[in-house]
Each structure stands twice: as structure tokens, then as C-alpha cells.
From TrEMBL, chain A:
<dbReference type="GO" id="GO:0005886">
    <property type="term" value="C:plasma membrane"/>
</dbReference>
<dbReference type="Pfam" id="PF00005">
    <property type="entry name" value="ABC_tran"/>
</dbReference>
<feature type="transmembrane region" description="Helical">
    <location>
        <begin position="55"/>
        <end position="72"/>
    </location>
</feature>
<dbReference type="InterPro" id="IPR003439">
    <property type="entry name" value="ABC_transporter-like_ATP-bd"/>
</dbReference>
<feature type="domain" description="ABC transmembrane type-1">
    <location>
        <begin position="24"/>
        <end position="304"/>
    </location>
</feature>
<dbReference type="GO" id="GO:0034040">
    <property type="term" value="F:ATPase-coupled lipid transmembrane transporter activity"/>
</dbReference>
<feature type="domain" description="ABC transporter">
    <location>
        <begin position="340"/>
        <end position="587"/>
    </location>
</feature>
<dbReference type="InterPro" id="IPR027417">
    <property type="entry name" value="P-loop_NTPase"/>
</dbReference>
<keyword id="KW-0812">Transmembrane</keyword>
<dbReference type="GO" id="GO:0005524">
    <property type="term" value="F:ATP binding"/>
</dbReference>
<dbReference type="GO" id="GO:0016887">
    <property type="term" value="F:ATP hydrolysis activity"/>
</dbReference>
<feature type="transmembrane region" description="Helical">
    <location>
        <begin position="247"/>
        <end position="268"/>
    </location>
</feature>
<dbReference type="InterPro" id="IPR036640">
    <property type="entry name" value="ABC1_TM_sf"/>
</dbReference>
<dbReference type="InterPro" id="IPR039421">
    <property type="entry name" value="Type_1_exporter"/>
</dbReference>
<feature type="transmembrane region" description="Helical">
    <location>
        <begin position="158"/>
        <end position="175"/>
    </location>
</feature>
<feature type="transmembrane region" description="Helical">
    <location>
        <begin position="21"/>
        <end position="43"/>
    </location>
</feature>
<keyword id="KW-0547">Nucleotide-binding</keyword>
Amino acid sequence: MRNLRLLGVVLGLCRRIAPRQLTWSLLLGVLGAFASLGIGVGMRDLVDGLAHHNTAAAVTGALVGAVSLALSSMGGRVAESLNAVLAEAVGAAMEHQVLRHSTALPYGALEDPGQLHRLEQARVPGIRMVSGALLLLKVGPLGLQVLLSLILLARTSWWLPALALTALPSLWLARRGERAMRAVRTQVAEDTRMATRLFDAALAPSSAKELALGGGAGLVRARGEQRLRRTADRMLRAGLSQARRESAGWLVFAAGCTAATALAYQLARAGATGPGTVLLVAGLGSQLRGQMAAILSGLRRSLEAMDSLDAYRWLLDQTPDPARRQTAGAPVPARLTDGLTLTGVGFAYTPGGPKVLDGIDLSIPAGSTVALVGEHGSGKTTLVKLLCGLYRPTTGSITVDGIPLEDLDQAAWRGRTTAAFQDFSRWEFRARQTIGVGDLPRIHDTAAIARTAARVGAAPVVDQLPHGGETQLGTTFGNGTELSGGQWQKLALARALLRERPLLAVLDEPTAALDAAAEHAVYQQYAAAARTYRHSTRGITLLVSHRFSTIRMADLIVVLDGGRIAEAGSHAELMANGGLYADLYGLQERAYT
Amino acid sequence: MRDIGSGGGGRPPSRWRLLREARHAGPALLIAVAACQLGQVLLPTVSSVALGMLVTRLVRGEEVGAVLGLLAAIGAALLGQQVLQLLQVPLTAFAERRVDLVLRAEISVLVDALPTLDRLEDPQLQDDLAQFRTGAIAWMNSGIGGGALAQLGQAAYYPALLLPAAVLSGITWWWGPALLLISIGIRIGTEREVIGFERLQTAHRAATRRTRAWGELIAGRRDAKEVRVFALGDWLLERSDEAQAERLAAFLAKRQAMVRTQAGRFAVCLAVVVAVELTVAGAGLAGAVPLGRIATVLGAATAMIGAGFGLGSALSIEAALPMVGALDRMRARAAQDKGRRPAALEGAAAARPPRIRFHAVRFGYPGAPREVLHGVDLELVPGEVLAVVGVNGAGKTTLTKLLAGLYEPTGGRVTVEGTRVQELPQTWWRRQVHAVFQDFAHLEMSAADNIRIAAAEAGDAQVRRAAALVGADTLIDSLPHGWETILARGYTGGVELSGGQWQRIALARAALAAEHGARVLVLDEPTANLDIRAELAAYEQIVAARGTATVVLISHRLSTVRKADRIVVLDGGRITESGTHEHLLAAGGTYAEMFTLQAAQFDQTQPTPAVPEATR
Ligand SMILES: Nc1ncnc2c1ncn2[C@@H]1O[C@H](COP(=O)(O)OP(=O)(O)OP(=O)(O)O)[C@@H](O)[C@H]1O
Ligand SMILES: Nc1ncnc2c1ncn2[C@@H]1O[C@H](COP(=O)(O)OP(=O)(O)OP(=O)(O)O)[C@@H](O)[C@H]1O
Ligand SMILES: [Mg+2]
Ligand SMILES: [Mg+2]
């Protein structure tokens, strides 16, 4: 069974991390099972003792009842607290694992609704996963308790254990309902996510400033609320109909209990047992109900946790252990000899969806600089992401010096690529680190970082900060300094340039937010860097830009149109061609004269 | 600021305070939930009374046929308890969701009503807000709603004790009060155990927020590309573990302490229960209480003692208390803000664009050592297209935020027809001016709604017209679900747009705002990701779509800027140049320098400016 396997995973972690607490928790669970029975037995003995004026029996009964009551109530609370300790400690360890493995997920997984949902499930706070799973642990003691109850009942009459059978319908109905509830929860997942994201957008200063104008905040609020209401309604409807179904099962059980009590009454009246037995049987019935209900609601509450655990397992199975550095795959060459070759590359973001790239045949010689040009939405960024290995082509193949990209040792290939993306990250670290993460081994090399910053005009940005390179940026991790749009981009550029010997450097609209002087300077520097790469590693520089002044410098210019290559060649060739490129170039040139 | 901003030091809000928030679920629902809860605690007593009577009849030797009514009552009480419990679960969850969604709405209204952005950026407030975001409270998936409903359940405890106490007193007068005392004593002890988590949570809320933030950087989608390309996973994970370790140690210590206290209380608890049972046994042996009643007494006493321990939902209450504290602080601050600014709406949209003036405006971001603007003097002539240029970090975006009233100048004034922006009715002014910022929002909503945020009341037709004005309609029509397509991956049929496509959406927002009566449009780098053809077209489209509105355009693309009616240069925190393109070019200042630099790159005679040797 899935749940048992998942519980096993959690217990294994508990045993490793907090063995003492686990032992105590299990022990108290078993004691609790005996204690719940002890309450009824004590009551029976006390009443029978009184009926027969047997002081010793009455006092023993009272004591058994008292100890049992204390154990089952106070002991239960201690067990809960122990479980909380387990949940806190083990949950943190699980969160760590989830984060560790999530970076090994392919980028595309974060865009796929199904896989994204699983990742979200795996990312619920670990404490909730563990405590939910531990609820399942109560099933064991319950089984024990049921068994003991049946033995007790059988000692009175062989008919009484039949009571257990009347519990079956409610259990079966509850299990069926569980499946229905899971289906509803999956249905509402998107609504809940959207509501959460919109709420976040309403509270984050960066989006709140735009939403403050034009009543946008109201619209965002209304849409979020709509989704939440729908979720609430759906969950209520599903919950009520399940309650209705289950009630029918419990009707059978209540009837069984009544019959059992009547039987005990008969026996006691005939003198076969004492009056205490009537209390015991009625008491056991209500104990059983309480315990079964607790288990069922525990199971129900553990559902979400089990789904999360399932997602946790999925994540761990899906991704290789990042610790065991995989050298699987072909070694990455130290220097490029031939270059990159794309043959018949096509790509669709969704299976069967529209092809964003189609039939791309292109060979990029080692050591060259390539410029990608095209209208917005023509597929430039997509091609960039393919080359960085973030997606795999749907059709065709990309080879590096003749070796297919996906056969290369991925970690090593990543170590030899560098990128400035169009939607670059705004890493809110210390300014030095924000650049330094571009080449982690050198993150403490302040001199190299300063040098690189200077090359792309980021030095003044860093220098004007209150504590220079040590200034905390942004507000996420404390009261840091905010930067302007262009300043952030300069840091992203410096980060991309920090790696010294890349085989592939991609720059996707690296100067979109830069001022004229900075843009000019940056391209000078890029040209220089490209030349360095060309000599040191014969690396390739790929840049996407709308600025022809820069594009012109490239050895090869590729014009994309609707996901296909419209034309390719050097500046002079394309100008002579008189195609889209010449058109756009002319337009921009005229705009400056 | 610390007095209202800090949460750690102040007294935690009372648990009863939560009940006030429960009202958002509506009376009918609350009564239904309370009835379920009350029924569940009362029915065991009913059943123990019936059992007592049954034993009495048994002692009297009556036939089974004569006690069928009692047997049925016992069965019905059992079934009743179960059905009530089954109903309570979905009803409670529904009520919790209702409370939470009302409060979420309130919080977002409070945020929206903040007079300035720096108030929202205040780290104290951000810490408070972080508590409401999902996942901030690790233990429970519950917000204030969960706590409020749990407190309602706690409230049901006290009246529920009265019935068994009355039953006991009916047998021996002092037993009722005695067990009341015992039960409440146990209860108080139990509550004590969990108290302190609220403090702990509030004290560590910043660490919790940081832990979540690191997690989002590692596993979230926003930065996933760079995390992979630069292999940042392990480095980020180390930081996340540091943040986690800090709060984990504190929480583990507290939980372990709780186990020890509870284990210590076991002996006390045992002594009390033994005393109760022996007293009952003694009374039975002495013949003071008949056998049938002993059964009732035992049942009622057990129920009361059990109720004292029943604090299962205490943790959701604990989780909700810091949130209530945060909510109260926000409400208090909002109440202080009230009345500071005129609330009345001065008519509808202004008939024509207003004259806006910056008088020696100075501005520095709160907490930042350097001033960004050192005395800006600028007049926006109604209806003009004004371009603002300047190097990165010159303060262009800041200038527009001041114009929109999102920040208050630290010196000087921004006036609209002579009135300071801060004295205008906030909601009115925020409809008069619309801005598409450089980092405009990519919202996980439908394409139509993504445009509609610029004018929330706009109908579908208006949205489509605005989109058509800037050429975004063909793009949207081609999406899988057209205008209803959600602009984010991860939703069924959702798509991600390219950078330039998003900018089209942003332009459509501006067009819609103008259609809907905005008199001043701010466009901060609206064409940074567009190719030259689209860039030039976008300019024409915006100028056509704006109607009579004043446009403030910020751009580093001087090819667009040159077409503006007027260009100003922001340099060193001041406006240093102002005039038409030709005028500024002739003047040979900063603008001319920048323009020549961009234009020179097209100079065929001098292909690529040489790379300085030194950098090789
Ligand atoms: N929210 C903020 N908090 C603190 N300082 C800020 C904030 N936003 C910007 N700054 C600082 O204010 C200065 C001006 O920033 P602003 O965004 O106005 O520049 P800009 O002219 O728009 O630049 P860009 O062309 O790069 O967009 C910068 O030095 C920046 O570091
Ligand atoms: N993550 C994604 N999921 C689904 N569709 C996408 C995704 N990213 C881009 N697209 C779609 O793929 C097409 C190509 O997008 P891409 O980002 O490659 O364009 P681009 O040439 O870089 O455009 P721009 O100049 O605007 O940056 C667009 O139609 C876009 O809507
Ligand atoms: Mg792109
Ligand atoms: Mg700016």
C-alpha cells in the first residue's frame, strides 16, 4: 500500500534523526490502546464490585479506571508533543532534501502544470508532512485496541464480537469518500495557486505600486476572492456529500451497538454476567466509535500530507542525488574545435502545441560571435534557452563538436556556459555576491569581481552604494538598498562576464535597460570579451539584440521570423540581400538621422 | 515607529480576540458549527444518564422489551455524536475559508490605501504581511480563520461542562462544583503548555520569512534559469540552512521543554483522577449512591475530565495569534491615516489634463544615505509628450513615482493645478494618472484581466479596443484560449509571453487607462524589448491612443525620444536641459552627446568603434 510505504519513509527518517522520541511515541501509543480499554474494564469492575458489595474488587476497579484515564488523556498529550518534536526536526530535514533536489529538476518541469503541482505539494512545510504521516501511526494501536475489545466481548458472549462487522460499512464508505476528496483537491489546486499569487502581488511593493493606480488592486482582489470562493464552495459540497454517505454506514454501527447492549442486558438480567458488563459493552461501543472516528479524521487530515510525501518521493526518485556528482556523459572539451551545430531543431513548449521553433539548421563555428535578430515573439529567447540546455529540442539535435548536447556531462557543460537572460535575476545579496555568483569558485575574489564590474560600467553602481561591494541589496533579506532597473542589469552583465573561459556565452538583450553611454561601453567590452574567448577557448558568443549598431559587429547574423530562419549571413551580405534585416536596419538608421 | 511596528515586545492579543474575526463567516454558519460542537460534548452526558437508568432498570429486573426506549436513546446518542462530527469538519473548513478570504480582502484594501509606497516597503510591515502569505506559518495550513473557529470550539467547552456538572450535583451537591474545578484546572494547565509559541513565532518571524525567501530562490521559477546555469543550488542551500537552523533550534527547544513539563504533570493528573474515582467508589460502597447512579456519575466525570484535556486545536489558535497581532497593527495604522487626506471625490475625471509642477523637489529614499533628486524644477504642460532622459540611476523612475504621489518629496512640492499632490483625494488622483513602470507586473491572470488592471471597471469591449490600439489584439487572439488565456505557465492552457509580447500588454494597459479617463500617462521604458519597427510604431500608437492626456515618456532609445514635444535631461538630481530635439542637439549638451553616440554607430565610414587594447 502506498501509504504504508510512505509512512515507512518518514519512520526511517525519524529513527535516524530522533530515535528516542520515536520510541517513546510508539510506546505511549501502545499503552494508550490498553488504557482506553482499561477505562471500560475499570468501570465494569467497580460497578460489579459495588453490586456484589465486594470492596476489594470495587477499589481495584476504581484504580484501574483512574490509571487508564490518566494514561489515555495525559499520556496522549505527551505522545502528541513527542510527535511535534519529531515533526519539527524531521520536517526540517525533509525541507532541506526537497530544496536540494529541486534544483536538479529540469527547467521545463517548472512550467508543466502536473509537475509544478507535485513540486508545490512537496514544498509544503516539512512539519506538516511529518505530523500528517504520524497520524497514520495511530492505526496500529487502534488495531490492537479493537482486537483486545473483541477478546473482552467474546468472553461475555460469542455473539458480541459480531459488533466488529457492523463497523465495516462505515470504514468502506470513508475510504471511498477519500478518493472523491482527492479528486476535488486536485481540481481546486489551480484556483488556490492563482489566489495565492494574486494576494502576493497585491502585497509586494514592486507590483503594488502599479496596482495602486487605476483600481488594479481592486480587480486583483476580486479575482483572487472569486477563486477562493469557488474553492470553498467546492470543498464544502464535496465534504457534505461525503458526510451524508458516511452517516449511512454509521447508522449500521449504531444499530449494532444498540443490539450488543441489549444482548448484554439480557445476559446480565439472566444473571450470566454482572450489571457492569452492560456498561462495559456500551462503553466499548462508544470507545470504538470515538477511536474509529479519530482514525478516519486522522486519515483524512493525513491525506494532504500523504500526497505531499508522495510528491517528495517522486522528487527524490526523479532527480539524481546532487551529492553524488554525476560524471555521467561525455567530457566537455577544453576548447571548441568545430563549434555548435543545430540540425532540424524544432521546439514546442507544450506537447502537441504550436512549434515556437521549426526546422532550424545552423552551424556556429568555434570562436565566432553570432547575433540573433527578429521581431518580438519570434523565438530568440527560446533558442537561447535551448542552447543553455534548459530545454531539449522537440525535434532535431544540437551538437557540440559533434557530441549531442544532452550526452555531455551536464554539470560540466553548465560550468562552461554563461548567460545574461532577458529576464535576469535580481539577486538580493551583498553587491559583491550578486556579481560573484556568476562564478562561484571566485565569489571571494574581490579584485576579479571589481575588474569585471568596471568592464561593464557596473563599478560606479557598486561604488555609490553606502558600503560598496558589501552593501546588502533589496529588502528581502533585511533592510538593503534598492537599485534602478538599469543598475540591476549592469550587475547581471557583470555576473555573466565573470566566468573567464566559457565555451558559450549568451546575452539576451543585455542592454535593454541601459543608457546610451553604458550600452556603447558594454558592447565594446563584449566585443573584447568575445575576442578573448575566441583566443582562449574558441568559445562562442551569442547575442540577442534589437540594436543594429551592435549586431553589425557579429561574424554571423541570424534573422528569425516566426520560429524559422529567415536569413543568415554577415552584415554586408544581409544588407545586399535587401530582406527583413536590411529593412529593419534602414529603419533604425533613419531614426537617427 | 517601533511602538506600533514591533510585534515581539508587546503583549500578545487575547485568544478571545479571535472570536471577533469569526464573525466574517456569517451567523448561520457559526451557529451551525457551534451546534455541532456543543452537541458532541453534551451527547456523552445524555448517554451516561441513559445508561444509569438502564442499570437501575436492570437491578429492578425489568424485561428487555421495557427498556427498548433507553437502548434506542443510547444508540441515537452514539449516532448523533458521529453525524455531528462528520458535519462539523466540512462546515468548519468552509467557515475558516470564509473568514480568511474576507480578511485577505481587508488586508489588500489596507495595503492599497497606504498613502505612500515607503510605508509598504517598511520592513516591519513586510514582516507582518509575510505572516499572511501561505507557508509563513509552518505548523498549520491555517490562517486567522482556523484560529477563530478553533477558539469557537474552545468557547463551547464552558457551557458544555454545565450539563454534566448539574447531573453530578443532582446526585451529591458538591460533586458538580468539584469536578468543574478539576476540569478547569486541567484545562488551564493544558493551555499553559502551549502558550509561548506565539511569542516564539513572533520573535522569529523575520527568520521564518528569510527561510521561505531562500526556499523560493532555490525552488521557485523566477530565478530557476540562473540557478541552473550558474549552478547556484548548493550555495543558496547553505544560506537557507543557516536561516533555518536559527529558528529550528528555538522551536525544538520549546517543544522538548513542553514534553518534559507534560511528563512532569502526569503524576499530578494521576493523583487527581485516582481521588475522583476512589471518592465515587467510596460513596457506592457506603450505599450513599445507588448503583444505577454510579454509572451516570462515572460517565459524567470522565466526560468532564476528558474535556479538560481536549485542547487539540490549541495550535491553530497559537498560529493565528501573531497574525491577529499583525492585523491589529495594520488596522491601527490605517485608522491613524484616516482623515489626513480629503476623501471626497472631486467630480469624475478632470475635463482636461491638469498642469503639474515640480517646485524645487528633493527626494531621498527612506534609510538611504544619498538623495536622488536635489531640487527638480519642472512643469508638465497639459497635453504635451514629455521625454525624460538620463543615465542609469539618474532618478527618472523616482521622478515618476513622485508624480503619481507614491512617495512624498522630502523637500519642495509637486503640485497639480496649484494643489499639492498629497492634498488631493488619493483615490481620485490615482485614477487621473496612470503609469506603466519599468518593472511592470506580470500577473497570473487572464490576458484580458492583465490589461484591465489599468482601469478595473473597463468592460470587455473597452479592453479589446485598447489592445487593438497598440496592436496587442492579434497576439491575444492567437493564444490558446484567446482573451481568457492565463498568462503564466502552470495553468491548464496557460502560456508565457516573450519579453516583447509582455511589453505589448503593458502598452495596452496605458491605452486602456487613457480610454478610461486617465489624464496623465507615464511610460517608463515601454519599448526596451521591442525591435525598431515595433518601437517606432508603439510611439505612434501611444500618441494616438492617449487622446488629450499628457504623456511622460522615459527611454534610452533616443530614436523614439526625439519625436517628443519636449525633452528634458535629468542629471545629478536636477533638470539640466529642456527643449525640442533640434534645440537640444544644437545646444550641444548632454543630450546631444548621447544622441551622437547612438547615431555614430550607424556611421558607415567608421564601422565598429575600435576596442581599446588595454582590455584584452
Ligand atoms: N525603492 C528604492 N529604495 C531605495 N533606493 C532606490 C529605490 N529605487 C531606486 N533607488 C535608488 O535611487 C536612484 C535612482 O533610481 P531610479 O530608479 O529613479 O533611476 P532611473 O533613472 O530610473 O534609472 P534607470 O535608467 O536605470 O531605470 C538609484 O541610485 C537607486 O539606487
Ligand atoms: N515558457 C513558455 N511557455 C509557453 N510559451 C512560451 C514560453 N516562452 C515563450 N513562449 C512563446 O514562444 C514564442 C517565442 O517566445 P520567445 O521568448 O522565444 O520570443 P523572443 O524572440 O525572445 O521575443 P522577444 O523579442 O519579445 O523577447 C512566443 O510566442 C511566446 O508566447
Ligand atoms: Mg526574448
Ligand atoms: Mg528607471
